[in-house]
Design a protein that fits this description.
alpha/beta
């Protein structure tokens, strides 16, 4: 995954201190470099002596040309004093990328009563002009460079921008149609393309079957590496070596199609025709690819695949997601719920050193290929992109792992703040029984990303929208 590119366009206004504006340009850049985010920054150095946007002296066109040539994914306009709102707005409008507006809090006036920057006043002006230009933007409270609220807001914006850039170029590899009885997995492919630019690239079960068989026969390096990984990381005592080889070959084949088609995620018809054709379950192959940042969703869940990409992008692709059924309530905890699937959770999340590769426990043929066991608990985000009747929303909620009884498949028990509220919201829709989890708090960044995705409404249940905004402001 290539790094996110951030355009850094600090701005000043001619009537305030040039020296102080330059000082803050440097201080702010040093501060964001210290955050340790793995991003590339494109600045204005070389366009004039100061590397600042001011008074239109270097012209919006030159800034736009640089940022477009460098293909920035987002742009940050720190107001080093009052700033030049008209040029900021022209640049932001032309780029059409997520836009961050912030400025450092002013010091007290000098002894003679003069003020060096008036940054806050300029932020009011720029916010208004961005609205005039119909530019959506993110605002971080006017604060000092070293204040936690600035770091929190900046990091959250970058994560949101990462969601937006991956969402806007998203292609889903669809392997076979949805299972006939799963009406919940219906999607409007044309509407996804028209509204969001999301492409679905379908292939047939025959395509994946023949490619898997060819990879098995070729016996190449990628296949041997996949087999070695499975044997090293899992307990394979219950299945044959032939089954291990075929599961590994399926994993290699799925990755080959994803790379060749430029797909960011895969939705696969995991049962039951695949078992008839290949004699295995794809669950472990799904798990291995999800661990490699190519999330795979079961039952041809296109919306689930979209959710998976958004969630892992919000975590800056530093943590794997897991794709789960919301299954049954905890037998004792009224706010507890079982997150489960047949055997597709990433191996890296397992609590056991060597979880088991097993035969599927539900189907009569008991095909091998499920990765079973409990995954670790801790704090998590649960999310779901979904829609119907032309309206789309993003469900968001936080959970934490708890103890619960053993069950088959891959699973984790979680507790939420108010399960009956969750259940009501999920059943009444537009959601289904599938969710995407991640061991990270990415709710604020996913919430902010919706600001840049027309037609997608954030739908947080815990924390609430008011609580998210208060957290970003530093009020809590």
């Amino acid at each position: 995954m290539k790094k996110l590119k951030l355009g850094y366009a600090p701005t000043r206004r001619f009537v305030f201190s040039e020296e102080d504006a330059f000082k803050y340009k440097v201080l702010i850049r040093e501060k964001i470099d210290s955050f340790g985010m793995d991003i590339d920054i494109v600045d204005l150095e070389g366009l004039n002596e100061e590397g600042l946007l001011y008074n239109d002296n270097i012209g919006a066109d030159k800034i736009i040309e640089r940022f477009q040539r460098e293909k920035v994914d987002a742009v940050f306009f720190p107001h080093c004093n009052f700033g030049t709102e008209d040029t900021v707005a022209r640049v932001a409008k032309a780029l059409g990328k997520p836009t961050l507006l912030w400025g450092p809090r002013d010091e007290a006036p000098l002894e003679d009563g003069m003020r060096l920057r008036d940054t806050q006043c300029g932020l009011f002006a720029t916010g208004k002009i961005l609205r005039r230009f119909n530019v959506p933007f993110t605002y971080v409270t006017n604060s000092r460079v070293n204040d936690p609220v600035f770091e929190r807001g900046f990091k959250n914006f970058v994560s949101a921008a990462n969601v937006v850039r991956q969402f806007r170029t998203l292609r889903i590899l669809q392997i076979a149609p949805r299972p006939a009885s799963f009406w919940t997995m219906m999607v409007n492919e044309g509407e996804l393309l028209e509204r969001f630019g999301i492409e679905v690239h379908p292939i047939t079960l025959i395509d994946i079957q023949k490619t898997t068989e060819r990879i098995e026969k070729q016996n190449g390096i990628e296949l041997h590496e996949a087999i070695a990984f499975i044997q090293a990381k899992l307990d394979v005592a219950e299945v044959t070596q032939a089954a291990v080889k075929r599961v590994a070959a399926l994993k290699v084949a799925m990755k080959k199609y994803a790379v060749e088609t430029g797909s960011g995620a895969i939705a696969i018809q995991c049962w039951s025709s695949l078992q008839d054709a290949m004699g295995i379950m794809p669950c472990l192959a799904n798990a291995l690819l999800t661990d490699e940042q190519i999330p795979v969703t079961c039952e041809t869940d296109i919306h689930g695949a979209i959710t998976s990409v958004m969630v892992q992008a919000a975590a800056m692709n530093e943590a794997p997601t897991f794709f789960a059924d919301l299954t049954v309530r905890h037998p004792e905890n009224p706010n507890g719920e079982l997150l489960f699937h047949c055997g597709n959770f990433p191996v890296s999340l397992s609590v056991e050193d060597k979880p088991k590769l097993r035969h599927h426990f539900l189907f009569d043929d008991h095909a091998p290929g499920t990765h079973e066991g409990e995954i670790r608990g801790g704090d998590m985000t649960l999310a779901r992109f979904d829609g119907d009747h032309g309206e789309y929303s993003l469900f968001l909620g936080k959970a934490r792992g708890i103890q619960g009884p053993y069950t088959r498949g891959s699973y984790v028990w979680v507790e939420v703040n108010d399960w009956p509220l969750w259940e009501e919201k999920l059943v009444k829709g537009p959601y289904v029984h599938h969710s995407v989890g991640i061991h990270a708090n990415v709710i604020p960044s996913l919430y902010e990303a919706c600001n840049y995705i027309p037609g997608l409404t954030p739908d947080p249940v815990d924390p609430t929208e008011a609580e998210i905004r208060a957290w970003l402001r530093g009020s809590v």
